Amino acid sequence: MAFSQKGLKNILQRHPNDVVFLSVLRTPITRAYKGGLKDAYPEQMLAAVLKGILDRTPSLDPASVQDVAVGTVLSELGGSKAARMVINHIGHPNSTTLYTINRACASSLQAITNIADSIAVGRINVGIGGGMESMTRNFGSNAIPTALWPALKESPVKDARDCIISMGLTSENVSKRYGINRADQDAFGASSHVKAFKAQEEGRFDAEIVPVVIEGAVLSKDDGIRHDVTTEAMAQLRPVFKPDGASTAGNSSQISDGAAAALMMRRSTAEALGLGNRITGKWVASKVVGVAPDEMGIGPVVAIPALLSATGIHSDDVGIWEINEAFASQALYSIRKLGLDPERVNPNGGGIALGHPLGATGARQLASLLPELRRQGHELGVISMCIGTGMGMASLIARE
Question: Which residues are known to be catalytic?
Answer without folding.
Answer: 105, 356, 386
